[in-house]
Amino acid sequence: MDKMPLHIAINTGASTPGSFELSSPISPQISPTLHDVEIHGPEPFDVRAPAAQVDIESGVPAGTDIGPEHAATAVPQLATAGDKLGEKLGTHGLQPLRERAGSLKLVKSPLDSPITPADQATPDKEHTVVLQDQSNFLPTKQVVIVFLGLGIALMCSFLEQTMMATSLPIISASLNSGPAQSWIITAYLLVSTAVTPLSSRFSDIFGRKVVLLFCLGEFWLFSLACALAQTTTQMIVFRALAGLGGGCLINLALIVISDVCSLRDRGKYQGIFEIIAAMSSGVGPIIGGELAGINWRWIFWLCVIMAAFATVVVWKVLPLKHVTGHVKEKISQIDGVGCILILAGCVMLLLGLNWGGVVYAWASAPVIVTMVLGVLLMVGFMTFEAFVPRIPIVPVSIFKYRTVVGVILQTTCMGGLQYCLLFYIPQWYQVVYGLSPLRSGLMLLPYICVIAPTVLLCAQIIAKYGIYRPQIWIGVCMQCVAMGLFTTIDTTTPISRVLGFQALSGIAAGCIFQTTLSALQGAVPRHEVSVATGFRNFVRLLAGTVFLAIGSAIINQSVNGLGLSATIVTQILNDPPSIHTLPDLDDATRARIIEAYHGGFRTVFYLLLGDSIAMALICFTLIQHHNLRRDDDAQLKAAGHKFMEDRKKKKQAKKDDHEHTDVEAGTP
């Protein structure tokens, strides 16, 4: 039988119904009596006027007020249209069109592109590959259970990093690392930063749960290898490989939460992540110092135990959607060239930043060459992503949204500020006040402890009122005041006053962290939330590394200018607190060194003050308000409830079948 067109007349309430022609290879299987199918009611194919038609590529009615989630560069799944057609035609015994939607050829709609809000630009490029939507809004009880696994996974990553800060000297002495000791931490940092944006796109292609379990398993394996390492080279290699999995855990945890709860409710749960991060940052150095005093290998054994537990919990309780398709097809969707470019560029850039002023002079050839190559490779990566891959790792279309640009710039400023505070404030206590590493770590608690309640308060405001910009504005203004106060401290300033400045900065940070993430995720289409979140986390890590390198150069230069011997300068720079214990220093020289260090710290605080002011200007001018309620939230919540009910029924049916088999076999 020849192919015959399937005509669908759409009832618009006018005298002449609009129609479009659907020509399909499966039409020979459709009974000729079904040529004309009328669809009535407010279905997704409704139109506003007889001449208007549905935009088949977007699956959105013409003339509908569209939210930012429909202003997409990639075409949503055809299964949406297939499901609706299947519901109308299924009563005639047709096979659901969802299974065969890929073979349909639709006559092009007059609407050439999805409708976009007036304040947002429509992306120029349409991708030919469709990524499957993994949104699966779950009931509150199930979301809390999901957090058990994600929270433990997140703690694995944070604790591993913070425990190393206080235990590195002991590990280095045990392995005779010498000058190579810095690479034990640097190797992890290099890899974990570089793979952050890759984990977002890989989770889109292979599925969140698959990639999360892989990262946990990989982190577990190489944490075990670190616990058994016998040489410095082994430790550096194993730490780098552990960073491959550990660096992705934070990013994936934030992405998973965006899949299982609505944008407006998301802040309440993501705020818990900030609490975990703050607690880990606070207790990590203490636990690391205590375990290192017993046996430094217990630091990695603790990571092994926690990673194993997190893997089991995620595997058992995380009910995420599976991404269908053959493994070869998924692998073919990976942007291999983009992966190589961003990995190489990031490693080169971070190498130059870590070498500068420590291994080589800033003006030396190795530092300049690696940093220039890193910048060129990163520029080449973004250019390549804009024109070549079908599924780019970082789609440049997200930067056409004004709020996204604002949040990325704000994150650059905030990431650098936060890393500098967490690193240089304890060092300032050790150098100026002569405190021990443990006590200086405890002095960070006023900054860390106020972040969690502030994040939760801001999240509740977002959930109740749907606003986030006032919290951001208050936060950046408070941060400017806090950094201004930091520039006033000197070697005689009471510690209690400095602790108050830290608490003010911590409250400001709590107002900023979660709210800017909500702004970012509310500004992009749903299918780009993962890559936008991943790029934000990548920028946060990269900016922190850059600012730490700049701060280190400023402080080191202040000591180099004192005219001391090269041996003493090297010893002080490698271990600043040793100023108070070096026997070769007289009191006058020691006081000069402390004053020079304080001058370097004050310059860093001035840098952070300028950074805070720039962040405030960015937030006031670029971050816009977006409605955090989307039209399909109710449908996704209902689908999530149905998903859990079906899952329970399948488990119960499997259990009943097993019991029935046991009864027939006579087994108790």
Automatic annotation (TrEMBL):
GO MF annotation, one: transmembrane transporter activity
Q: How does it sit in the membrane?
A: Multi-pass membrane protein
* Keywords on record: Membrane, Transmembrane, Transmembrane helix
Region: Disordered, residue numbers: 640-668
Q: Does the keyword Transmembrane helix apply?
A: yes
Q: PANTHER family this protein is in?
A: DRUG TRANSPORTER, PUTATIVE (AFU_ORTHOLOGUE AFUA_4G03920)-RELATED, MAJOR FACILITATOR SUPERFAMILY
Q: Where is the Major facilitator superfamily (MFS) profile domain?
A: 146-627
- Where does this chain mainly localize? membrane
The record ties this protein, via PROSITE patterns, to: MFS
The organism encoding this protein is: Calocera viscosa (strain TUFC12733)
The protein here is known as MFS general substrate transporter
Identify the domain of life: Eukaryota
Q: What is its subcellular localisation?
A: Membrane
List, alphabetically, the GO terms of the cellular component aspect: plasma membrane
